[in-house]
Write a structure and sequence with these properties.
Elements lengths: L16 H7 L6 H14 L15 H10 L4 E4 L6 H7 L7 E5 L14 H10 L5 E5 L4 E5 L6 H4 L1 E3 L1 H7 L9 E3 L1 H4 L3 E6 L6 H5 L2 H5 L2 E4 L2 E4 L4 E7 L12 H6 L2 E4 L6 H11 L4 H6 E2 L2 H16 L12 H20 L5 E2 L9 H5 L6 H6 L1 H20 L16 H8 L4 E4 L4 H9 L4 H8 L6 H14 L4 E5 L2 E5 L3 H9 L1
Parallel strand pairs: 1-10, 1-11, 4-7, 7-10, 12-13
Antiparallel strand pairs: 2-3, 5-6, 8-9, 14-16, 15-16
Helix pairs in contact: 12-14, 12-15, 14-15, 14-18, 18-22, 21-22
């Protein structure tokens, strides 16, 4: 029986080394195990990295090639690019269950033990050596690299309590307490944010990656550890907080670059997949697709903004948290108005601002503007983009009310009219105010939008026209006022 067969059925019967040998189980290294299981999944056309979107033609093929080459992997990319999630999904390429010598702390292979304890147990008990099985989820070890991580944490140290308990001198290797790396024998070991690891700690990984040697407090152990290493790093960390030292980087065979979603569609799919919406919110709040697009435009605007540090990146978590806030803003309004259902609005995006300010690193100019103003700037740019995707560009239209689809609307505002939309307006109040703008309904009808989205596009048209400076928009507390752009100027002249 090959080790890539699901062994769960046989676990109750295979409890000794003799039973394991009889079953036909054959040992293989973890890199070989990953490789064979990957090939099997590829031949069966199975989905390998479930939930990873937008990397089908770029990152995922690189990872598959690295596994086929039996390489250790460095995932290099900005924040929020699914690096850790990809590393955790590698567990699905492991056998479901794996046999180890019972009671062994380093997952010793019963057919090929490497520790003194394991070797002695097999020598003394022979075919009666007890076997236990561990699930593949127990074969994943993850460590966040921080400046305070020590060699003892990763490699190990002499344990005085262990020496006293076993009544052994410090010269006996059995007093060693192994660190995370040896305990990851026959497992996947992930170090997140590798550049944050001090250079002297990175040095300790050299021989483990290359030769399998361990040296702990004068003990030089020849332990042929079998570990699949996966490292993650942010390229900006190379200059900000630390760096991956060259000899270590040289020993990591495959360096794979990740990236942000390249299209609004992929970004929107990721956001919908990851957003943690309550079931009550899903049933009561309708999220218009146009508003989902608008939210993704905010993230894309942020990645291009002169106020945001592009080297730091803008995480996909901006859109995810933003969608959660957008829905919660609409839900809050629904509760206050004692409604049973509602739809999202552009005005709800002011509730998304807290999700934006915490997700962007600002450059000097952005710090001068302030996080709130930068968030509003990003929102304004996104509204303009989504407006121009759905409506004719005002600066490309021939002059005159008859030819200008916005002429009647501008004339209505020029006649000293204005409307004020409150964040918490009921559906009736919201629609009544939009209907009061002469020419607005006719504009939407001419564009042939879906009837259920009419008022959403009516509101977008007002916001878009204000971004194009055709009408004026002002914000005060929870109220957005639309008026003629020259109204304030004339009021000042009258005052004088």
């Amino acid at each position: 029986m090959s080790s890539n067969i699901n062994l769960k059925t046989y676990m109750n019967d295979i409890t000794t080394l003799a039973a394991l040998k009889k079953s036909g189980y054959k040992s293989r290294g973890i890199k070989e195990e990953l490789r064979e299981n990957l090939i099997s999944k590829m031949k069966k056309k199975e989905k390998i990295f479930e939930g990873i979107l937008g990397f089908d033609d770029t990152v995922l093929p690189d990872i598959e090639r690295a596994i086929l080459s039996r390489h250790n992997i460095l995932l290099l990319g900005l924040r929020g690019q699914a690096k850790t999630r990809i590393a955790r999904l590698l567990v699905t390429l492991l056998d479901e269950y794996m046999p180890i010598i019972a009671g062994n702390e380093l997952n010793d292979d019963p057919l090929n033990p490497i520790t003194r304890d394991g070797i002695e147990k097999v020598d003394s008990l022979g075919d009666k050596t007890p076997i236990e099985w561990i699930h593949r989820n127990e074969r994943y070890v993850e460590k966040l690299a921080t400046p305070d991580v020590s060699i003892a944490d990763l490699i190990g140290d002499v344990d005085p309590i262990k020496a006293a308990t076993l009544k052994l001198p410090y010269s006996d290797e059995r007093v060693i307490h192994f660190g995370l790396v040896p305990r990851s024998h026959r497992s996947i070991f992930v170090i997140n944010e590798l550049p944050d690891l001090q250079p002297r700690i990175q040095v300790s990984l050299f021989n483990i990656l290359q030769e399998g040697d361990l040296q702990i407090r004068g003990f030089k152990l020849r332990l042929p550890l079998d570990v699949q290493f996966v490292f993650t790093a942010n390229p900006e960390d190379y200059t900000n907080r630390g760096s991956i030292i060259t000899p270590l980087k040289d020993r990591i065979e495959s360096q794979i670059l990740t990236h942000y979603p390249t299209t609004i569609e992929i970004s929107k799919e990721i956001t919908q997949q990851e957003a943690n919406l309550h079931e009550d919110q899903k049933s009561a709040v309708t999220i218009f697709e146009m508003h989902q697009d608008l939210l993704e435009f905010v993230a894309f605007e942020a990645r291009e903004s002169e106020f945001v540090d592009e080297k730091s990146g803008v995480s996909a978590r901006l859109s995810i948290s933003g969608l959660e806030n957008l829905v919660s803003t609409a839900e809050r309004r629904m509760i206050l108005n004692e409604d049973t259902s509602t739809t999202t609005r552009v005005t709800d995006f002011w509730g998304v601002v807290p999700a934006i300010t915490g997700k962007v690193e600002l450059v000097y100019e952005g710090e001068q503007e302030g996080p709130y103003n930068v968030a509003m700037h990003l929102l304004s740019g996104a509204i303009k983009e989504i407006f121009l995707e759905n409506f004719p560009a005002p600066d490309e239209i021939e002059k005159g009310i008859d030819r200008d689809p916005y002429g009647t609307i501008k004339a209505w505002f020029a006649d000293n009219n204005q409307i004020e939309i409150l964040n918490n307006d009921s559906e009736e109040e919201y629609r009544k105010k939009l209907d009061s703008v002469v020419g607005l309904s006719k504009l939407i009808d001419s564009q042939k939008f879906e009837p259920e989205m009419k008022y959403a596009f009516m509101e977008l048209a007002l916001h878009g026209l204000s971004e194009m400076e055709m009408i004026s928009k002002s914000l005060l507390n929870n109220t957005i006022s639309f008026s003629d752009p020259f109204k304030g100027m004339f009021d000042e002249l009258e005052g004088e």
